[in-house]
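Structure in, sequence out. Go:
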């Protein structure tokens, strides 16, 4: 009787770990990686970044202030300063960023939308999952970047079946 109980327990435990990667399971795993913040580095002491900022409406809208000229004594000091209105879009910076006069700003967010396709590999232990992400919550600072920050994009990720179940091992 005891042996029967152990065998039954083993069968139940093994049947709980399905080797099939469903769309729902893939979506559950992928959605844990999202939303993702998309950021941009603003080099505040770089005259080219200052010129690009001047071309945008960020000054007129009150997010930044730009010094158009500098004296020789001010060489190396930032051209771009962020106002209180911009504070909600400023991201933490490292000491290295501060030394280089870099301020990271939030451009928007990527949100997981849906799984489109699952291509199982011949060994049944790996799969390629194609899914979509959507750009949401774009900020006024998107004008400084070269990113296309609208619409839906397709992404792919490789999944692998481990002892603990399906895991996303890389995105490409």
């Amino acid at each position: 009787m005891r042996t029967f109980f152990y065998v039954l327990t083993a069968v139940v435990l093994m049947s709980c770990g399905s080797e099939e990667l469903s769309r729902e399971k893939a979506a559950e795993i992928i959605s844990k990686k999202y939303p993702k913040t998309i950021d941009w580095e603003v080099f505040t002491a770089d005259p080219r970044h200052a010129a690009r900022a001047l071309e945008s409406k960020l000054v007129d809208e009150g997010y930044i202030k730009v010094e158009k000229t500098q004296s020789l004594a001010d060489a190396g000091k930032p051209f771009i300063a962020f106002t209180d209105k911009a504070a909600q879009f400023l991201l933490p910076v490292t000491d290295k960023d501060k030394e280089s006069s870099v301020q990271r700003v939030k451009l928007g967010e990527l949100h997981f939308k849906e799984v489109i396709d699952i291509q199982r590999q011949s060994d049944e232990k790996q799969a390629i999952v194609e899914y979509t992400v959507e750009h949401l919550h774009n900020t006024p600072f998107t004008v400084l970047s070269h990113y296309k920050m609208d619409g839906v994009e397709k992404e792919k990720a490789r999944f692998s079946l481990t002892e603990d179940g399906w895991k996303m091992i890389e995105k490409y």
